[in-house]
Design goal:
198 residues; alpha+beta; Jelly Rolls; 6-stranded antiparallel sheet; 5-stranded antiparallel sheet; 3 helices; 18% helix; globular
């Protein structure tokens, strides 16, 4: 009997929240209006300075984040001691995107999607072993399309409003261009969680 064991697995966790995000969205736009923001991974988009998730109206997001965090901790066998280190707002208007990046000095990276118009860009995760994969198996050697392969260089995900994603902080990722025909902005709040020893 032949057995196949998956080795070096990683994860992408998602949870769909049903809370009303209108007040949060309004506050994101107000902060954007009042601040120049910073440039880190954003290409043409606006990224805020760090925000306090315990302050209103952002505090409504924390219980939703903790719901998915509990599942991630159980899955990864990490210790249940954590700190939400930081958080920031991302607003990608027409033709804006985010370059490949990671979330350093943390254990878990996350994104809470506040507004996701149609065709406003998928988030794409890069396989850490992608160079080895592409160096040894060319595209014409696969019998399956990329999304259906058990081993792939890139995993793409299309989020919806109210969805929370969590992933290892070291997992490289980027956001596609916002190609919404009505020039509607895509708004999200990214955050980092640090797992503590106790």
């Amino acid at each position: 009997m032949t057995n196949i064991t998956e080795i070096f697995p990683t994860y992408l966790a998602n949870y769909k929240s049903n809370i009303n995000l209108e007040t949060v969205l309004d506050e994101c736009f107000q902060i954007e209006k009042e601040n120049d923001g910073v440039k880190i991974s954003n290409v043409g988009g606006w990224q805020s300075d760090l925000i306090d998730l315990t302050s209103k109206p952002f505090d409504v997001l924390v219980p939703e984040i903790l719901k998915i965090l509990q599942t991630v901790i159980e899955y990864t066998k990490l210790k249940p001691y954590y700190t939400i280190r930081n958080a920031w707002i991302n607003i990608n208007r027409a033709n804006c995107s985010n370059l490949v990046h990671m979330h350093p000095e943390s254990s878990i990276g996350g994104v809470f999607y506040i507004k996701v118009p149609e065709n406003s860009g998928k988030i794409k995760f890069l396989n850490p072993a992608r160079i080895g994969i592409t160096s040894n198996v060319s595209d014409d050697q696969w019998a399956a399309k990329p999304f259906h392969r058990p081993i792939t260089e890139v995993y793409e995900y299309l989020p919806v409003p109210g969805e929370v994603l969590m992933f290892p902080s070291w997992l490289e990722h980027y956001v596609e261009n916002n190609d919404n025909v009505n020039n509607e902005p895509r708004v999200s709040i990214a955050f980092n969680i640090k797992i503590n020893s106790r």
